[in-house]
Specification:
By secondary structure, the chain is of the alpha+beta class. The protein contains five helices and seven strands; from the N terminus they run H-H-H-E-E-H-E-E-E-E-H-E. It has a seven-stranded antiparallel β-sheet with strand order 6-5-4-3-2-1-7, sandwiched between helices. It is globular and about 45 Å long.
Length: 181
Amino acid sequence: MFIADPRLAVAAIAAALDWGGAATPEVDWGVVERRLGTLLPGDYKEFMARFPSGMFRSVIRFINPTQTKMHLRSFQQDFDQALANVRTAWEYDYDTYLPFPEPGGVIPFASDDTGGVFFRLPWTPDPDRWHVVYLSRHSPDDWTRMKRSMTAVMLELAKSQGKRNILGWDMSRYERSFQPH
């Protein structure tokens, strides 16, 4: 299901996960973007306005970098580690995407409970058109690319009842919920 308006997509994700809460940001997005060295898509910001740090369907882990300064530090640590892993794979000539800040380099934003990482693929200068790619923990060149926004991919995961999702996992065994940390 594709919803073009990020607010509607985030509302649909929250409804699918039976989440009625909201995030309480303490850090401005300008601070986050300067610290990371990149602009971030509007749908990601909209998602983070609704969801604090936590686990999505007991599978997807998000750290909301605007929640507190401590959350921003934790997000930065995960961000840097994910990029270091991609850089190492790239340096060892695996068939991988380039790591940010290389031109077109992938930018991490979430992880799964097994160590896989979700990235944005900045294939265009417009962050609102960036695609999502997923790197399985099983291999440094096991990537899945979705030519969709972050909220479109998360909505698919929120509603998935089978293996037709970016992870390729049978999501029917995971409760549709969100647990804040």
